[in-house]
Amino acid sequence: MSNIKIAPSILSADFSKLGEEVIAIDKAGADYVHIDVMDGHFVPNLTFGAPVIKAIRNKTSLVFDVHLMIDKPERYIEDFAKAGADIIVVHAESTIHLHRVIQQIKATGKKAGVSLNPATPVDILKYIIDDLDMVLVMSVNPGFGGQKFIESSVQKIKDVRALSKTVDIQVDGGITDETIGRCIEAGANVFVAGSYVFSGDYKERIDSLKRG
Ligand code: DX5
Ligand code: ZN
């Protein structure tokens, strides 16, 4: 089996039993728990914040991969680090001072990632790529689960891989057993899947993604 990692997005989980859902994806073979934080400004939807992350932190030792879809994330980095995030991903479009925010994340001892919306060019990574643990290529417009995979993301993954041979490349949006293969071929190695994992048997779905 390849070294790809699967990060189920709890955006598609049953929020009334979030703790049990996290335990269930752990048992089903997930590598990361992908946690989508939305503020109703950067994206047209609202989800949850640091207190909810803190409440589920003791349910699993899986990596907490926190995807911040919020304006000016620099205001909340320490809160998310304290709540139990392991990787903190900010959007390139969400802050004027992207380099500074990355240093702020690293100062908390956590891993740092930058996410690009579908229309954002890869060039924005040129001067920060060596500071990053992960680049998140959004393959849908952020805000909602269950959207269709945007095909131009495949070329974008290749462009990020050309910038760095070693950075983790995560893809988020519309990932299924049908779309994951071409993203792996393009050079991605971490895959978020929300509706695909949570709409079936969790283990079967995660296994089918790992088969590529
Ligand atoms: C969208 C979120 C995704 C979402 C993916 O803004 O960042 O993580 O949960 O959902 P699916 O896998 O259903 O496209
Ligand atoms: Zn996400």
UniProtKB/TrEMBL annotation:
PANTHER family xrefs: RIBULOSE-5-PHOSPHATE-3-EPIMERASE
Binding sites annotated in the UniProt record for substrate: 9, 67, 143-146, 172-174, 194-195
Organism: Fusobacterium mortiferum
UniProt GO MF annotations: D-ribulose-phosphate 3-epimerase activity
Keywords of the record: Carbohydrate metabolism, Isomerase, Metal-binding
Protein name: Ribulose-phosphate 3-epimerase
Cross-referenced SUPFAM superfamilies: Ribulose-phoshate binding barrel
E.C. code: 5.1.3.1
Role description: Catalyzes the reversible epimerization of D-ribulose 5-phosphate to D-xylulose 5-phosphate.
Family indicated by similarity: Belongs to the ribulose-phosphate 3-epimerase family.
Pathway: Carbohydrate degradation
Cofactor binding note from Swiss-Prot or TrEMBL: Binds 1 divalent metal cation per subunit.
Catalytic activity as recorded in UniProt: D-ribulose 5-phosphate = D-xylulose 5-phosphate
Lineage, uppermost ranks: Bacteria, Fusobacteriati, Fusobacteriota, Fusobacteriia, Fusobacteriales
Signal peptide: none
Keyword Membrane appears in the UniProt entry: no
Active site: 36, 172
Top EC category: isomerase
CDD domains per record: RPE
Cofactor: Mn(2+); Fe(2+); Zn(2+); Co(2+)
Binding site for a divalent metal cation: 34, 36, 67, 172
